[in-house]
From TrEMBL:
GO terms for molecular function: S-methyl-5-thioribose kinase activity. Keywords: Amino-acid biosynthesis, ATP-binding, Kinase, Methionine biosynthesis, Nucleotide-binding, Transferase. PANTHER family: METHYLTHIORIBOSE KINASE (PTHR34273). Substrate binds at D233, R349. This is Methylthioribose kinase. It is an enzyme of class 2 (transferase). The lineage of its organism: Bacteria, Bacillati, Bacillota, Bacilli, Bacillales. NCBIfam families: MTRK (TIGR01767). The gene is mtnK. Homodimer. It comes from the Bacteria. Residues 34-267 form the Aminoglycoside phosphotransferase domain. It catalyses: 5-(methylsulfanyl)-D-ribose + ATP = 5-(methylsulfanyl)-alpha-D-ribose 1-phosphate + ADP + H(+). Catalyzes the phosphorylation of methylthioribose into methylthioribose-1-phosphate. Pfam families: APH (PF01636).
Amino acid sequence: MSLQTKKPYEALTTETVVQVVAPLNHFDDVNQLEIKEIGDGNLNYVFHLVEPATGKSLIVKQALPYAKVVGESWPLTLDRARIESEALIKAGEYVPALVPKVYHTDRQLACTVMEDLSDHLILRKGLIQGEVYPKLAEHIATFLAQTLFHTSDFFLHPFVKKEQVKAFINPELCKITEDLVFTDPFFNHDTNDFPEELKSSVERLWNDQTLKRETAKLKHAFLTRAEALLHGDLHTGSIFVTTDSTKVIDPEFAYYGPIGFDIGQFFANLALSYLSHFHHSKDQHKRQQFQAYLLNVIEDTWTHFTEQFSQLWHSKGQEAYMQVAGVEEDFFAQVLEDAIGFAGCEVIRRTIGLAHVADLDSIEDQALQLKLKEKALALGSTLVRERKQLTRISRFLETIRGVAHA
Ligand SMILES: Nc1ncnc2c1ncn2[C@@H]1O[C@H](COP(=O)(O)OP(=O)(O)O)[C@@H](O)[C@H]1O
Ligand SMILES: CSC[C@H]1O[C@H](OP(=O)(O)O)[C@H](O)[C@@H]1O
């Protein structure tokens, strides 16, 4: 359901957010709601509304006209709320169990009313605690295969696909990724954030012309290859989990881009988790087990993804060339190469760029944190530089293991 209010934009508060949900008749009595702002991301407000008497609850997520993490000096389009809401609805057409339900979108207020997933935990937090999620790989592979296939030229009529590209033009959010993932960490830029002790490693990275040449190709792919509707920010903070359930949230960076990008971001954040468990797992046996689990998630995600995408390729493919011998193999080889390259960029930017990850930053032992960040830089550089040689998922895993244990 999509109701439009005529009111001009205003930042919601715990008092005014009630006005957004009242017309939905979701609650028995909106005057009895307990409301908290719970946003912990970089960009938006997230309000949690619960009615204690009935246990009914909702989430209202609102975009601010600037990036919350920096403040009003970084203006940011409110259109991202529309993109996020439409991307969730689009994903819901193919994988309804893997995204929150969207109940209402308000274009003027740049907010989305959605299902409350507070019974789930943000995957990053679960992984830091060493929790195992047996269905994660299968669920994320399904999310990736279904959303990417059904929004691509393999499935859509070219006119429909181009309409979709138009609807998901997202220049300001893409620019953030172009800068923060692909550019700034590779140059001496003021958005970068790293301790002085890492300076010599960072300078080595800045002076690595091969790395920069390869990163330029990956950035160019991100800028130009409108292959499918991406989530655009599929890190472990954008995934909610329980033992049985997985929900992907926060697709405000959605746009038409290279299929390997979402896969690479997911893999990168698992690789960062792998490194961080040299700290988070106190016991060596548990650490080895958990790190093996993380690599299994990467491997199983890739295996399930290729199986499902291939099944869709053969059952629902619309493009004449899809039946030509070798085309499918070439496609998966390109996606893997891209995913590994994008993973390398994500690992580097989460280590020395503007937006870090709690997996590494929460390590109190500063010497160990530095050592692991050095490893992250080495891993990221290797993945970008050597992605063309890592032609099997097993070689990607060997690289993570090799760099981590060097
Ligand atoms: N549907 C939801 N149900 C419960 N909590 C949510 C929901 N969506 C977001 N949150 C909470 O708000 C936080 C920030 O949400 P997120 O969508 O990642 O915002 P941002 O775009 O600012 O990064 C999440 O980490 C989670 O704790
Ligand atoms: C100034 S935005 C930095 C960073 O934040 C986004 O992540 P999230 O919205 O999940 O916190 C995205 O990864 C951006 O690159």
